[in-house]
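Q: Structure tokens for this one, please.
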Amino acid sequence: MGQPTTITSGGQTDSLDPTARHFVLWCLESLGLRTSCDQGVYVVVIPSSEPNQPRTAAHPHEMLAGKRFSFEPQTDAAMTQVEHVTLKSPFLGWLLEQLRTTAWPVHAVAARQPSSVHELTDHVFGHYRIDGGRIHLSGCSFEDRPFLRLSYVNTGGISGHPQVVHCFGTSNGGLLDDDLRRQLELDELIPLKDRKPYLDEEVLRRWTEITRRMHEHRVDGTWAAPVAATLVWCKRAEGKLTFSVGQKSVEHAFSDWARLIVDHRVLPPPYKCPITGRTSYHLAATDDGRITVADAIATCAESGQRVLETELESCEETGRRVLERYLQICPVTGRKVLASQFKPCSVCRQSVSPAALAANRCSACRDIAAMPKADPRLARILDAYPKLDRWRSWKMSETEAAYVLLGTAAWKRLLVVLDKKTLDVLHLALGSRFSSKWTQATSVQQADWLA
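A: Here is the predicted structure, written as tokens:
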């Protein structure tokens, strides 16, 4: 939470420091009066209605025209008509009374802030880059948002010296952070003479009371009521950027204080990919035209297609990043592997990943073991294919997708590969007990051996 801005002025001469002097001049300016200065002596000037033109109507404070004052005590006898102004002087008291009756609150703007959207464009665009595309401003507006400055004159401050204290309140009921106040340059204000933004009186009253309480809670000592209230209007920029590549485009919103954007004190927000969550100021498009941050795009190792990085998966054997359609689950290892890497087992003919093969045989065929006919899995198979019960003994293994069975008779062997879910025949072959070769069954043989 921000601390109040305190300007201490004092010493044996009760002279004002530069910032306190600025407050006195600010009071004059807020009443529509100007000053000229020569060797430390200020002269009140009634401004003309138009530059270089005579005034056509009396100023409400016409009697101050030509008044001379100084912030330093004058010792020259010729300066007897020059009033020495301090925070205790009647002149300042009169100015503050005029503010209370004619200019409460004062409306002001920071002395230096952008006045047009054009001033922001380069400062925003320069942070972004889009490969093969363009950036344009699809909409931007300035909104005047207020801070409430309460000004106190404490002629008996904690240090024993007169003090001017400015306290800045925010519209959400807090005190303005000192760093933000300095960055927005709210110590240099210009009274707003033209059309003034409207703020409901009751809202202002409640806001003033809240800010007073917040201020009094943060400082020590007893403080009188504020002598001036100023609504300081700062421009808040709200806009959207459009990033385009070909016929595709995306929008990106930004919002911050215009002064901070122009001064490069804040950066516009990086674009956030809505799918990957990655953020960056560098954008690009996928091959199918989707615009996102460049770091969220990767290339499929199989197709060469540029897609979102999150759409790629890793082959669990090679580590290559590919689209999901190029991966296949090995029925033996259960791992996702590049389908292009699969090879058939020389025995069961199942297509498996290279890691599942040894001497061209998959681990299921290598690890096949004797199985009693009472085993529930084998019993289910024999119930579906009763003719298989004629074979004397069985060996069996299984993968994620299939059963591999090896039946043995006196001189022959029968290799049966069945789908685990449906028990459909995937492969059927006949061999000799004394040979490692297998002969695939014809449709006629399959019907004879199984049906």
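A few notes: Confidence is low (pLDDT under 50) at residues 3-13. Residues 368-450 form one domain.
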